[in-house]
Design goal:
Layout lengths: L4 E3 L2 E3 L5 E5 L6 E6 L3 H15 L2 H4 L3 H17 L1 H12 L3 H22 L15 E9 L2 E5 L5 H14 L3 E5 L6 H13 L6 E3 L4 H9 L5 E5 L2 H14 L2 E5 L4 E5 L5 H13 L9 E7 H16 L19 H17 L2 E4 L17 E4 L6 H4 L6 E7 L5 H5 L4 E2 L1 E5 L3 H10 L4 E4 L14 E2 L2 E2 L4 H7 L1 E9 L2
């Protein structure tokens, strides 16, 4: 298990203080890691800047970059079980998620963008100027800062890293201090795959390390996934410095269950949408809009299904719901549950930290509220935990306006037997992604990102290639 930082192709403990990363299933310390100082960040950026112009990287042919990324994907796949167990130990997600979703998704993204490395083209443009040839080319940006969250540490890192490398950039990565371990292990894999020294650097630590990276004058692009509050600060700083920035932020996804939907059939999909990774998903369905005539039935069935899920350590293969990632997050969830009860919502199941043999870990019982009002805080603010809210509606015409009555716009779900109704609602809802009659799935080819306070820019697909390149116009006289 790697615990040092990776700077300029070397593993270093830095010169400052340390911090601990804990196993959320037990509360025990897994490892102590270096808290990156400003000088550590400076060293990482300097290494990335030097590597960006080096013959080993800048002169690497697109087919060679592709081979390096394909090799990294193969090595990650070979060590998939090791990565999955480490992700589960450090973050808490059940092995069914880390081994069945997170690691395979990371492998898929490395291969997908390895394929793009040889297909990044410009265009020739017919101009109304005589005797001139005009063409464009896409070029890498330079040193990119990648700041990643604690809910899916490995997977979301690769969403950023794979297109950044495929397009020829160099990077400095700052993983969330709660979950840094798989990021460091991935750096080892990239080194083994043949990434030249300085192309990929990892600094560990908390907010101060992130601030130093965002404000560094030699970092030309920041890609951040995390809270809306922090994203606003990063966006403001990047704007002042005229840096390029991509922000994938919070969410409060509505799930619209039309009156014609089969309530029994949609329970399972909505349960997965809302409680995947203990609700620590920015696209988690947390606001369920249900026809008033079926709302009580839906809420009771959802509460029964949620309450029957097996809570336990992620390394136990029978676990369905693991711990939340930190004590801080556990306490925040409890505060929101208390607010919901005080506001008059009906607590149907859960609502408290697990006790007994799970008492030392950060386990929160899956929680369902019925009779929730549109203006209640539990219906408006991102909780980022296993807390679901059922909101009755009377008139189908109010669905889209109520679903849109939020500052967020990352994701939404629509459930209806009428495909016309489903698609009309999908068009009306302001969200970056809408799933119709299905739980959340992701693919490297499908753009991902939010509207409104859920962020700016897109990851995945060709959109990520655009996010890590800039266009140059080249004019040539033919006279």
């Amino acid at each position: 298990m790697r615990t040092d930082m990776f700077i300029g192709g070397k593993w270093t403990g830095g010169g400052g203080t340390t911090f601990s990363t804990r196993n959320p299933a037990t509360g025990e310390v897994i490892a102590d890691l270096p808290e990156a100082s400003k000088s550590d960040v400076d060293s990482a950026v300097a290494a990335a800047r030097e590597a960006f112009g080096s013959p080993e990287w800048a002169g690497m042919l697109p087919a060679q970059r592709a081979r390096v990324l394909f090799k990294a994907a193969d090595l990650l796949e070979e060590r998939a079980a090791e990565f999955a167990r480490l992700e589960t130990t450090d973050q808490g997600q059940p092995l069914s998620i880390s081994a069945g979703f997170s690691v395979p998704n990371a492998v898929e993204h490395l291969r997908y963008y390895a394929g793009w490395a040889t297909k990044i083209t410009g265009v020739t443009t017919p101009l109304s100027v005589p005797d001139v040839d005009h063409r464009t080319r896409r070029e890498p940006l330079g040193v990119c800062g990648l700041i990643t969250p604690w809910n899916f540490p490995l997977m979301i890192l690769v969403w950023k890293l794979a297109p950044a490398l495929a397009t020829g950039n160099t990077v400095v990565i700052k993983p969330a201090e709660q979950t840094p371990l798989t990021t460091l292990l991935l750096a080892e894999v990239l080194e083994q795959a043949g990434i030249p020294p300085g192309v990929v650097n990892v600094v560990t630590g908390g907010p101060e390390a992130g601030k130093a990276l965002v404000s560094h004058p030699d970092v030309v692009k920041i890609s951040f996934t995390g809270s809306t509050a922090v994203g606003r600060e990063i966006g403001a700083e990047a704007g002042r410095a005229l840096k390029k920035v991509s922000l994938e932020l919070g969410g409060k996804a509505p799930s619209i269950i039309a009156a014609d939907a089969d309530v029994d059939a949609v329970i399972e999909g909505n349960l997965m949408s809302g409680l995947l990774n203990s609700g620590q998903v920015c696209a988690a369905a947390t606001r369920f809009y249900v026809d008033r005539s079926r709302a009580d039935e839906f809420a009771e069935k959802m509460a029964g299904a949620a309450g029957s899920m097996k809570l336990g350590p992620g390394l136990d293969e029978s676990t369905q719901l693991g711990p939340v990632a930190s004590l801080e997050q556990l306490e925040q969830i409890q505060r929101y549950v208390d607010i919901g009860k005080a506001e008059g919502a009906q607590l149907l199941t859960g609502g408290s930290r697990a006790d007994g043999h799970l008492a030392d870990g950060y386990f929160f019982r899956p929680t369902v509220f019925g009779g929730v009002g549109q203006d209640m805080r539990i219906a408006r603010e991102e909780i980022f935990g296993p807390v679901l809210t059922v909101l009755p509606y009377d008139d189908p015409e109010e669905l889209a306006p109520r679903a849109n009555d939020t500052e967020y716009g990352l994701a939404a779900y629509v459930w209806s037997r009428d495909i016309g109704t489903a698609n009309r609602l999908a068009h009306q809802v302001k969200a970056g992604t809408v799933w119709i009659n299905m739980p959340p799935l992701l693919d490297a080819g499908a753009p991902w990102g939010g509207m409104k306070s859920s962020g700016s820019g897109r990851e995945m697909g060709w959109d990520a290639i655009e996010a890590f390149t800039e266009v140059k116009s080249i004019w040539t006289s033919l006279a």
